[in-house]
Amino acid sequence: MEEQMKEWLEPYSTTDYKTSTFETMQEQAKEWLDQGKVDLFLGYKMVQGHPLPHFFKKDNLDEVDDLIFGQARYSLEKIATKIAAEHPEMKIGLLVRDCNQRALNVLYVWNQLNPDNMETINVNCCPSKLKKHADCSYLEPEKYGSYKKMVGIDNNMEVEAAEEFSQEERYNRWLYEFQKCLKCYGCRDICPVCFCKECSLEHPDLIATGSIPPEVPIFHLVRAVHMGGRCIDCGLCEDACPSDIPLRLLYRKVSETVEDVFGYKTGTHTDQSPFNLLGDEVTLEPKPL
Amino acid sequence: MDYKMIPSVCSYCGTGCGVLFQVMDGKLTGTMPMKTHPVNEGKLCIKGWNLHEHVVSDKRLQTPLLKKDGQLQEATWDQAIQTTAGKLKAIIKDHGPDSVGVLASAKITNEENYLAQKFARAVIGTNNVDHCARL
Ligand code: SF4
Ligand code: SF4
Ligand code: SF4
Predict the structure, then answer these.
(1) pLDDT value at residue A12
(2) Which of A41, A167, A215, A221 has the fewest CB atoms within 10 Å distance of its CB?
């Protein structure tokens, strides 16, 4: 993985590339704001030494010179859904990495955003099985200690490697991971494609309340199942998890199953999800296994 | 339409996680972890994630309440302070300063906490000062 990432990073690691990209995207954003193609542009700006999501507007075009992108990765599209919920007619421009674009596709499919109101400037990044080429090292894997490797699941593992453990060992290793959960709901709250008004993770009939860790493994498995046809492998959940639980790996397995059974590659297009059941008729069509 | 992300620090415990307050049209709507903050590196506990709730909660008191005839009733700040001062004086007179304890809070500033302990020690005359994070 590390070797591969170095390879991906190589062609884009020069400062020249960054400077010219910054200028190009600033000009583009200015033009859109000026011409009224977008009412507001979501990108990043350095504030108090931190790259933070920032909203650029027509009445302050000069500020667009501060538009940047860098290693910090926020779900700008999730912020866009909050704005669109209050101001549905608002035209929003967005700086997107590939993971943001995949999340946007899912949000269009689930009617959380109207594609006609969105304009995007793409920056290349985010290594994922859904997008191999990347120019950001943000997701360069963290190194984990030997105890975790001995009794838990190394977050950098591939699905295939994790499946090599015997069933009993695999179960115990995952339980070790799940039991560290603080029930902060950060995985859900940060997730660009978690938008349900009523969340099953808070449903007392599904998951017992009042204890930490939450009921395991059900808490994590309920979320994993709900990520079928939704998760776009951005890894923000795992980034936000204070307990380093290998959530991304878990949801990758779910996405693999969705792809195997329904031939549906979540986030790479805007075709209807096999789980988007409207009306009375069930139209799920599993592929023959 | 106005949407801002305001960087701040979580006030619930001494860890000091970096947060971003999401403010839409002048209303506080949410809290997010600050991804580049050296303390929490983009992670929060459940208290941090819900920081905005204690600001916008309907249950939040807007005026002081005084108990009259067994019922809590709205009062002015002047009434509340006069009543409290009078009662504290009476208690200290009858039972001594150590019959009073001052509980400071994680949700006020460092300076306000300093004032609270100063009030306990210099005005009331007790070392009974503690903090909500230890309760
Ligand atoms: S990787 Fe995590 S945060 Fe990203 S879409 Fe999947 S579940 Fe949501
Ligand atoms: S982010 Fe991690 S600790 Fe928090 S609820 Fe999700 S799995 Fe549990
Ligand atoms: S988010 Fe949690 S751990 Fe961090 S400062 Fe707030 S209360 Fe403390």
Answers:
(1) 39
(2) A167
Return the minimum-mean-pLDDT range out of A4-13, A124-133, A263-272, B118-127: A4-13
Mutate to test the pocket of ligand 3, among B37, B39, B45, B51 (most ligand atoms within 8 A of CB): B45
> At which residue do the structure tokens 């400037």 appear?
A121
pLDDT in tens, B27-42: 999 999 999 999 999 9
The residues, ordered by sequence, that sit 6+ positions from A258 with a Cβ below 8 Å of its Cβ are: A228, A229, A264, A266, A274
| Residue that the structure tokens 């920032």 belong to | A54
* Span from the CA of A20 to the centroid of ligand 2 (angstroms): 39
Domain membership flag for residue B70:
no
* Minimal-distance CA residue to ligand 3 atom 2: B45
Min distance A161 CA to chain B CA atoms (Å): 27
Is the alpha carbon torsion for A17, A80, B20, A40 positive or negative?
positive
Quick check: is B72 in a domain?
A: no
Q: Do A136 and A229 form a contact (C-beta atoms < 8 A)?
A: no
Tell me the C-alpha distance between A176 and A169, whole Å: 11
Is the CB of residue A185 below 6 angstroms from any atom belonging to ligand 2? yes
Which ligand is located closest to the Cα atom of residue A128? Answer: 1
How many structural domains compose chain B? 2
Mutate to test the pocket of ligand 2, among A153, A175, A185 (most ligand atoms within 8 A of CB): A185
Residue B14 lies in a domain: yes
> Does A239 lie at the interface with B, CB-CB under 8 angstroms?
yes
Which ligand number lies closest to the CA of residue A186?
Answer: 2
ipTM: 0.83
Which atom of ligand 1 is least distant from the CA of A240?
A: 3
Q: Considering only CA atoms, which of B17, B11, B47, B49 is closest in space to residue A194?
A: B49
What's the Cα-to-Cα distance from A24 to each of A65, A71, A195, rounded to whole Å? 11, 18, 33
- Distance (Å) of CA A203 to CA A183, A186, A188, A250: 13, 17, 14, 22
pLDDT for A137 equals 42
Segments forming the whole domain that contains residue B123: 96-135
User: Does residue B77 lie in a domain region?
Assistant: no
Identity of the residue numbered B53 = E
Token output for B82: 């006069």
CATH code for the domain in which residue B48 is found = 2.20.25.90
